[in-house]
Amino acid sequence: AIDPNFDQNRERVGEENGVTVWGPVDEPEQLGIHGTHVAVDYDICIADGACLENCPVDVFTWVDTPGHPASEEKVEPTRESQCIDCMLCVDICPVDAIDVDAS
Ligand code: SF4
Ligand code: F3S
Q1: Residue 75: which of 59, 90, 56 has the closest Cα?
Q2: Ligand 1 probe mutation, 57, 75, 80, most atoms within 8 A of CB
Q3: What class has domain 6-96?
Q4: Which residues, listed in sequence order, are joined to residue 30 by a DSSP beta bridge?
Q5: Complex ipTM value
Q6: Atom of ligand 1 nearest to the CA of 90
Q7: Could you tell me where the beta strands, DSSP code E, fall in the chain?
């Protein structure tokens, strides 16, 4: 599962699609965590898609991640500022790849 304390345990290494990336990153096998308020661990995500399909405010966008061992697509939280903290994505993800900081 995603580390809920990633913002203390990892370092910001850049931005992709306007979203903060937390390392370590070693493309294409290791992609880190994308997002801060809504955070997706790209190294855990298997592209199930339930988060994207069910988010009431369309926070997520598909991106291609060719060569990643878990899946060749991931969900980027491109509209994380619109998140209403409903926690649906956190609860629905089958591999616990998402953390939402509702505090
Ligand atoms: Fe969307 Fe709810 Fe997840 Fe926020 S917590 S990204 S509103 S599903
Ligand atoms: Fe990935 Fe979980 Fe969403 S596997 S696509 S973060 S439901």
Answers
A1: 59
A2: 57
A3: alpha beta
A4: 26
A5: 0.98
A6: 3
A7: 12-16, 19-22, 33-34, 38-41, 61-64, 73-76, 98-100
Closest CA relative to residue 39, chosen from 73, 103, 89: 89
From first to last of the 103 residues of the chain, give the pLDDT tens digit: 999 999 999 999 999 999 999 999 999 999 999 999 999 999 999 999 999 999 999 999 999 999 999 999 999 999 999 999 999 999 999 999 999 998 7
Contact 18, 7 (CB under 8 A): no
Lining ligand 1 with CB less than 6 A are 38, 55-57, 59, 83-89, 100
Any idea where the domains of the chain sit in the sequence? 6-96
